[in-house]
Amino acid sequence: CIYSYFSRVISTLSVTRYSIPEEMERGSVVANLAADLGLEVGVLAHREVKLEMFQESNKYLDVNKKTGELYIVEQMDREYLCPSKTATTCFVKLDVIIESPLRIFNIELEIKDINDNAPHFRRDRVELDVSESATPGERFSLPNAVDPDGGINTVKMYKLSESEHFTIEIQTGSDGTKYVDMVLTKALDREENAVHHLILTAVDGGVPARSGTANIIVRVLDTNDNAPRFDHPVYSVNMTENSPIGTLVMKLNATDLDEGPNAEIKYSFTLYTSEKTQDVFALNPNTGEITVKGTIDYEDMKFYELHVEAKDKGQHPLLGDTMHLDIAESTPAGERFSLNNAVDPDIGTNSIKTYYLSESEHFNIEIQTGRDGSKFTDLILKKALDREEQSVHNLILTAVDGGVPSRTGTANIIVRVLDTNDNAPKFDRESYNIDIMENSPIGRLVVKLNATDLDVGSNSEIVYSFSLYTSEKTQETFNLNPNTGEITVKDMINYEDFRIYDMEVIATDKGTHFLSGHCKLTILVTDMNDNHPELSIKSFQSPIKEDIAVDTVIAVVSVSDKDSGENGKVDIHIADQLPFALRESSDNYYELVVSEPLDREKVPEYEITFTVTDRGSPPLSDNETMTLELLDVNDNVPQFPQSFYTIPVMENNAPGALLSSLTAFDPDLHENQYLVYFIIEKEIVNTSMSMLFSINPENGNLYALKTFDYEIEKEFLFHIETRDSGVPPLNSNVTVHIIIVDQNDNPPVIVSPWRAHGSVVEEKIPRSTDKGSLVSKVIAIDTDSVQNSRITYQFLQVTDATLFSLDQYNGEIRTMRMFSYRDARHQRLVVIAKDNGDPALSATVTIKLSTVETAVKAYSDMTEVPLEYDIFSDLNLYLVIGLGSVSFLLLITILVTCTLCPSTLEKVRVSFSSILCHHEHVVCCYPLFYSRRNGGRLCCC
């Protein structure tokens, strides 16, 4: 696999074709690849270029990056690259893969054949045994020549050296291969020429033509077609009577032009020789010597007539017995066969005079007369026999004497025609076309051939064999049973290796001089779905950025299947739920493109499984899984868990106290996930937020820089921003509401009745005051809030508890009854004003009431109380003056701090070891180690 790392793939998969002759020298330029593919040579030098050749590990080609030329690295032999003889063209497929950005070009390189191979025979010496009885037209298979070249450069024709007996016939197989048969044009005669030397020449069609030769040795096998011949047809020998027994009379000599058993001779007396003569003379069957066996008496017999026959030892001897005659069908017309002569005791004219033979188109008789007047008859073959037409001939021989009236006798002659191997086996059909499924199991029957032979016996027994015509590969793949003619599978049949097998089968009989017949078979291999489709990842881009554009190519794959037809058609797919799609770009090439926007935060990586399935039945499939990793891009804004934070802070807090941790989340990775926190600057009453609060830029911890007083500052509203470190950075902000929580740190202050510090309030009241009259009113104020400022009033001490009442909520002191004479003149009241805090704080006031007899208006009826009014007005004045002074001092402090902040901020050491930076209304708080690491200077944006 090729893994490429680039931002965007540009893929061009058009097919560019070139054609070159094989065996080009190293360094030879095939083409200017850069120009043909529209590439700039200058840019090409900086890009990685790879050549990938299909199913071939050797590197034959390369690209010169400086010139853009495609050149030869290693010589290419077409016969090696395309060994199949069925292919008329040789194409080598390769991919040119150029990186950064990726471009893939499909190249088809046609390797043209040159005539660099001469035809040659697998066997340069062929020996054939041909019977001399073979008839003209008989065919004999010869081995075909092999030429690795293709097209016109392969074997085009055959030539045979000059011969009056043989010629050749050329046939063309289904794959274009030339086959040659040798044909007998003239009958052979072993006795004339026992061996024929021929030369077979195979010539290809190249220019110039190349050739190869094979020597053919034809041995002519003998047929028993020559009868033994004596040196003389008639011999005359004079013998002295009473010659001793064993005396050599003569030595006969017969010769036979045949050879082997056909030439071995055995001598014997024929039936013409009388028993008396055979009693007197002996004949050695092997040597032909005739010797004296009995007494020779001139007075008894003055001459002896001996008939001797010489018979060879061939399978069908040319001479045979009488009455029951076995005659070979190959016996030539004119051959003579001795018959038993008839015996007639009469003498003279009453003896046998003539013989007659029943009508026959094949036989007649010839009568001879001996010296003693005896009649002898020979059966003459006048027409050649054919056992296949008639295997037995029944004849009647009639002997007639010369008496008046004449008398006759008959004998039956049964002629059995002996078979001669004169019929070659013949197949039921001359050619067969057979379909067979590839991967057929070993031993499966392909076809059962049947040949018949009209002869009988061993001449009709057939043996089957492959001819030389049949290639070694075919013979390795199929087995032929020599006895049954069954052709079975011998080895694995692979459609992808060989789709057609041509063979020739010879049926040969078992005759002494065998004959044979031929048939040709073409076995067509049917493809079965036995090859899994193959998937090749040409380029795979991983990792890729998550924001890669839709329709961008991220991978290029190729598919193939060695099967054919539907079995070789391949479909490719990926899981439907993936945000990718496959797009066919060219023949068997597919691009994997982004079909939907990607989001690393949802799915950080994908397991993409490419599944290829052919269309066979059942279909076969294969798959390959690749992991696609997504690179993060800064596409997510940091998010706070809340959009608004309310943070209560107790007043009187310690400076540097942690108020809260405002942590945002960013689902991006690495620098895109690293967040920095800032306070967005805001001024409150001329006070910068940076003087009040600080935030740790790394973790979002919010700190207070000063102690807050609820009575002065009750709340703060500002924004905190977080920003990631991506390029460009993304940011978000959140609103923070700081609420200062009141602490009961202020006791109530009694403002009425007013009195000097530590003094007792003295008041006068008429003794005649009515019940329920307002005597005095205690007013206390508390600068705290809510519960802490709620005041209740109680008597701490009272002279007479029955005389006065105190409203606990408004502080009014009223009379509960009229004064009596028993009541003391002076009443002392101690009132405590207590807030509702925890713990509660309080203040007291002592009121001394004196009763007078003079008429004084009651408190409730007075329109003005000059003394108390003046006192209360003076108190308000003092309060205003005090609060104004404090505010003025606070304002001066803030202005001085802001003026000195830029130059002295780096020197400020906060209690939690942080540094404050003020820049453009943004407050930053950085740890000291962060400041030092960046050279002691901080910049907040």
UniProtKB/TrEMBL annotation:
Check the record and name the SUPFAM superfamilies matching this protein: Cadherin-like (SSF49313)
Report the membrane topology from the UniProt record.
Answer: Single-pass type I membrane protein
- GO cellular component term, pick one: plasma membrane
Note the Pfam families from the entry: Cadherin, Cadherin_2
Location comes to: Cell membrane
Q: Where is the Cadherin domain?
A: 12-121, 122-230, 231-427, 428-535, 536-640, 641-750, 765-868
Any one Gene Ontology molecular-function term assigned to this protein's record: calcium ion binding
Where does the chain cross the membrane? 877-901
User: Which UniProt keywords are listed?
Assistant: Calcium, Cell adhesion, Cell membrane, Glycoprotein, Membrane, Repeat, Signal, Transmembrane, Transmembrane helix
Q: Which InterPro entries match?
A: Cadherin-like_dom (IPR002126), Cadherin-like_sf (IPR015919), Cadherin_CS (IPR020894), Cadherin_N (IPR013164), Protocadherin/Cadherin-CA (IPR050174)
- Has keyword Ribonucleoprotein? no
A GO BP entry: homophilic cell adhesion via plasma membrane adhesion molecules
The free-text function statement in the UniProt record for this protein reads:
Potential calcium-dependent cell-adhesion protein. May be involved in the establishment and maintenance of specific neuronal connections in the brain.
Protein name stated in the entry: Cadherin domain-containing protein
